[in-house]
């Protein structure tokens, strides 16, 4: 897709974002272990290295030979270098892991990479450090051959974070692996809180992984729900049955000789318990069924959210619990027999778990960054499908009345849990951005893939009582614009 030179792209605006937390990464692996100021070109132990005479840091690398200087940059030869070397043109390093060490850079703001040997690393640039490929390994002259970075492990291929001075990434090919793991995304290049110019970069995202339907937790009681029986003149105890996650039911105590029983109950008190049996061997009343089934889960408000931790697909909402059934009333006793106890009501079904969103395929992800693209190709692949919403648990049947001459009431049936909402389908787009600005020239090619299907709604829980509600289908965007903005 082409646009007028340096024209601001038309953007596809989606509706909202949630929040996600970001995890810390190991500072040694990410080259951020300099104390209060981890900028490789600042004065926390390392004076900022100025450009050598005749070097314009903003110029294209195919015409800035004066910048290719040992005093200004580290040099990497992935085939013949050695990480014990000094990192000069004559004695280059072998890996980008070594070159991105702040101690190794010592204030130099640029890394040059030569040759055609593939680099099997994920790379995190220190702030304000540029990465430049396209050089031969003998004379360190510009050749225009892209340096291929294709990690053997999943993850973001190149991560740029916190570069407040404009950096350059040029003449590199970034090949991301397919997302591995439930709902995992594939992102080739992620730029966060930075200013950057990308020249002749090829960024190819792999396929996003589909998410799997989550299991439904249980809300059953570990106790027997049946009412306590009695023998002759000893009244049966009532009983309380607590559900494993939410709710409880109370079977009423039986009455003694010639005495009334106690009513049944439920917590929370959404419906009435069984009535108490009157004196004279009157049976206790049956507890009412759970009044309401669980509500179905709601779909995510957006396809996902981009944070410093990366892309988080939209997760469907959980279904809610069904109401528990009420306990039966205790029976009244007569002159010869005491009353039996009421049974507990069945627990309400657990709500179904919301489905996770499908993994995305994103060539270039931009968070609060100002980025200019000059040439190159940015392409995404198939995104993963969102997971089904979890099925709501069925409501448990109420307990039976206990064996007795004067019977306590049976317990009411629990209501079914609501089904979970389906997860959002994964997004597939060449460029996904939140905040900042994005410009491209006429030569840049942006190609989106196919978005993942939404996760279908979770089925409601049934049972002998009131059923729950179904969840909602997840969101999906099967054909995204080449540049997709998530506000």
Short description:
With 487 residues, the protein is mainly beta. It has 3 helices and 25 strands.
**What is the average per-residue confidence, as pLDDT, rounded to a whole number?**
91
- Report the biggest beta sheet as strand number plus sense, adding barrel if it closes: 8 strands, mixed
Quick one: how many beta strands? 25
Shape: rod-shaped
Low-confidence stretches: 1-39
Q: Give the fraction of residues assigned to helices.
A: under 10%
H/E series, N to C?
Answer: EEHEHHEEEEEEEEEEEEEEEEEEEEEE
Descriptors:
487 residues, seven-stranded parallel β-sheet, 25 strands, eight-stranded mixed β-sheet, mainly beta, 2% helix, disordered N terminus
Report on the structure:
- This protein is an all-beta fold and 487 residues long.
- The protein has a domain of 232 residues.
- It is 2% helix and 21% strand.
- It has 3 helices and 25 strands.
- An 8-stranded mixed sheet has the order 1-23-20-12-9-6-4-3, with no helix packed on it.
- A hairpin with a 2-residue loop joins strand 17 and strand 18.
- The relative contact order is 0.15.
Please render the helix and strand layout as text.
Elements (H helix, E strand, L loop, with lengths): L6 E2 L3 E2 L13 H4 L43 E3 L19 H4 L2 H4 L4 E5 L8 E3 L4 E6 L11 E3 L8 E4 L5 E4 L1 E4 L10 E7 L2 E5 L2 E3 L34 E4 L5 E4 L13 E3 L36 E4 L2 E4 L47 E7 L2 E5 L2 E3 L48 E7 L2 E4 L4 E3 L35 E3 L2
Parallel strand pairs: 2-25, 3-4, 4-6, 5-8, 6-9, 7-10, 8-11, 9-12, 10-13, 11-19, 12-20, 13-21, 19-22, 20-23, 21-24, 22-25
Antiparallel strand pairs: 1-23, 14-15, 15-16, 17-18
């Amino acid at each position: 897709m082409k646009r007028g030179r340096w024209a601001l792209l038309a953007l596809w605006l989606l509706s909202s974002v949630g929040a996600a937390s970001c995890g810390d990464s190991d500072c040694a692996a990410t080259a951020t272990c300099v104390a209060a100021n981890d900028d490789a070109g600042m004065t926390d132990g390392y004076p900022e290295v100025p450009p050598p005479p005749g070097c314009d840091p903003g110029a294209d690398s195919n015409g800035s030979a004066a910048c290719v200087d040992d005093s200004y940059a580290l040099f990497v030869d992935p085939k013949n270098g050695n990480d014990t070397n000094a990192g000069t043109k004559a004695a280059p390093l072998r890996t980008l892991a070594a070159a991105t060490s702040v101690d190794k850079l010592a204030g130099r703001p640029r890394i040059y990479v030569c040759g055609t040997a593939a680099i099997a690393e994920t790379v995190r640039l220190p702030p304000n450090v540029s990465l430049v490929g396209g050089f031969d390994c003998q004379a360190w002259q510009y050749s225009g051959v892209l340096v291929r970075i294709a990690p053997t492990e999943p993850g973001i291929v190149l991560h740029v974070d916190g570069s407040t001075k404009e950096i350059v990434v040029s003449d590199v090919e970034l090949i991301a692996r397919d997302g591995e793991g439930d709902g995992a995304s594939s992102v080739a290049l992620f730029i966060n809180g930075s200013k950057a110019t990308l020249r002749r970069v090829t960024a190819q995202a792999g396929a996003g992984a589909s998410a799997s339907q989550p299991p439904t937790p249980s809300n059953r009681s570990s106790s027997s729900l049946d009412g306590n029986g009695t023998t002759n003149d000893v009244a049966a105890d009532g009983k309380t049955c607590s559900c494993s996650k939410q709710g409880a039911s109370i079977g009423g105590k039986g009455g003694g000789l010639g005495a009334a029983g106690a009513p049944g109950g439920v917590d929370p008190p959404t419906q009435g318990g069984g009535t108490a049996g009157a004196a004279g061997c009157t049976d206790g009343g049956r507890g009412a069924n759970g009044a309401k089934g669980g509500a179905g889960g709601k779909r995510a408000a957006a396809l996902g959210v981009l944070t410093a931790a990366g892309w988080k697909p939209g997760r469907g909402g959980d279904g809610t619990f069904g109401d528990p059934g009420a306990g039966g009333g205790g029976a009244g006793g007569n002159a010869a027999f005491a009353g039996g106890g009421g049974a507990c009501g069945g627990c309400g079904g657990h709500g179904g778990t919301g489905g996770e969103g499908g993994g995305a395929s994103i060539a270039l992800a931009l968070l609060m960054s100002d980025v200019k693209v000059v040439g190159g190709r940015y392409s995404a692949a198939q995104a993963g499908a969102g997971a089904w919403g979890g099925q709501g648990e069925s409501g448990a049947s109420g307990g039976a009345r206990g064996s007795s001459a004067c019977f306590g009431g049976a317990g009411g049936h629990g209501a079914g849990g609501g089904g979970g909402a389906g997860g959002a389908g994964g997004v597939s787009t060449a460029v996904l951005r939140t905040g900042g600005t994005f410009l491209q020239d006429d030569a840049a090619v942006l190609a989106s893939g196919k978005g993942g299907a939404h996760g279908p709604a979770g089925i409601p829980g049934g049972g002998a009582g009131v059923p729950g509600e179904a969840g909602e289908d997840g969101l999906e965007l099967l054909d995204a614009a080449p540049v997709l903005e998530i506000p």
